[in-house]
Amino acid sequence: MATTYRTNKTTKKIFERLLTLCDYNEFGAAAMMGSLSAISGLDPKYRGTAMSVDKIPVGIGGWIGKNKRTMQERCTKAGRANTNIDIQLQFLEDELMLPKKAEMVEKMRLATDIHSAVLAVAKGYEGIAVTKVVNKPLIEAREKAAEYYYSKYINKNEAKDEEVLKEQECIEDILNNARYVEITATKTKLREKDSITSPALLNAVKGETFLYACMNEKKTWYMVYVGDEEMWVSARSAKIVE
C-alpha cells in the first residue's frame, strides 16, 4: 500500500522554515521533513499514546517530558493553543540551535545528497542507531519521505523556473525578429476583439507603432501587443513595418 504524505500550507511553511535553518541546503531541509513526517505526520495537532501523560508525544516534533512542557508553557504564555504551528516552529528552531545539535545541523547544512542528510538527522535528532541493520527500514522510510518533500517543494520550483526561462526565450525571440504595426489613420481605436463592435481599449494616433503578433483568419485585423495585453486594430487603419 502506497504511503500518503501530508501536504498543505502548514507542511510548506515547515519546509520553508527548515530551509532557512539549513542555510538553504535543500537536502538538509528535506531530511528533517522526513524525520518529522515519521514522528508526527507533520501535524501540529499530533498527539500520540503512552502509559503516562508526560510521555505522550505531541506536536510536529513529537515532544515529550521537559520539551513538551516547555513548548506548552510557551503556548500558554502567548495565549495560543499548544497546536499553534508558529510557536512549534520556533521551539523546533531553538531545539536545533542547542550545542548538542550543532554537529547534526552542520551536516544538514553541508549535505550533498538526501541519503547522508537523512542519516545525520535520524541519528542526531531521533537518536536512531543508523548503522544497525535492524533500523534499516526506519531509515528507508525517512529517506522516502524526504525524497517526496524534496520533489514536492524543490523540483516543482525548478520546473517553474524552466517554464519562466522558456517564456523569456520566446519573448526574446519575438523581439529579435520583431515586426511592428504602424497606425496610418489620423485616429483609430485598438479593440478587445477583431470586430468593429468590440469594446475599444485604447485610442491610437497616426504614426504610433505597436509590436505585431499576427493577423486574423480573414486578414482584416492585426493583433498587437500593448505591454502584456493583446489588442486588435483594423488593417484599414494600419500597416506592418519592419
Describe the protein in words.
The protein has helices at residues 9-21, 26-40, 65-77, 85-96, 102-110, 114-124, 136-176, and strands spanning 180-183, 187-191, 200-205, 209-215, 221-226, 229-234, 238-241. It has 242 residues and is α+β, with helices and mostly antiparallel strands. The chain has two domains: 9-168, Lysozyme (Orthogonal Bundle); 180-241, SH3 type barrels (Roll), CATH 2.30.30.40. The strands form two sheets. A five-stranded antiparallel beta sheet has the order 6-5-4-1-7, with no helix packed on it. Helix 2 (26-40) packs across helix 6 (114-124), helix 2 packs across helix 7 (136-176) and helix 6 (114-124) crosses helix 7 (136-176). The longest helix has 41 residues, at 136-176. It starts with 8 loop residues before the first helix and ends with a strand. The mean pLDDT is 88.
